[in-house]
Amino acid sequence: MIVSETPTGYIEHYDILSYVVILGMIVGIAMMYLVNKMVQRKVTNPAVPV
After folding, report:
1. pLDDT mean across residues, the chain
2. Per-residue DSSP letter, 29
3. Is residue 49 part of a domain?
4. Which of 21, 1, 20 is nearest to 11 (CA)?
5. Average pLDDT per 10 consecutive residues for the chain, totaling 50 residues
6. Are 4 and 13 a contacting pair, CB within 8 Å?
7. Is 47 left (phi over 0), alpha (psi -120 to 50) or beta?
8. 19, part of any domain
């Protein structure tokens, strides 16, 4: 668990959660870019059946 609440109601480590979310978004964007390149390569060079 990244975020926790103290007995006084204060939320701790909320800033760390934002860094984790941003990192996840960057990784997701990079993976989508790589998949897009693979699909575009297959579209422009379709496999010829033998």
Report:
1. 92
2. H
3. no
4. 1
5. 92 94 98 96 81
6. yes
7. beta
8. yes
Q: What domain count does the chain have?
A: 1
Cα-Cα-Cα-Cα dihedral sign, residues 3, 6, 9, 12: negative
Q: CA 38 → CA 11, 15, 22, distances in Å?
A: 43, 35, 25
What's the pLDDT score for residue 7? 94
Given its phi and psi angles, is residue 41 left (phi above 0), alpha (psi -120 to 50 degrees) or beta? alpha
Residue that has been written with the tokens 């579209």 in this structure:
43
Task: With respect to residue 50, please indicate whether it lies within any of the assigned structural domains.
Answer: no
Query: How high is the pLDDT of residue 38?
Result: 94
Contact 13, 7 (CB under 8 A): no
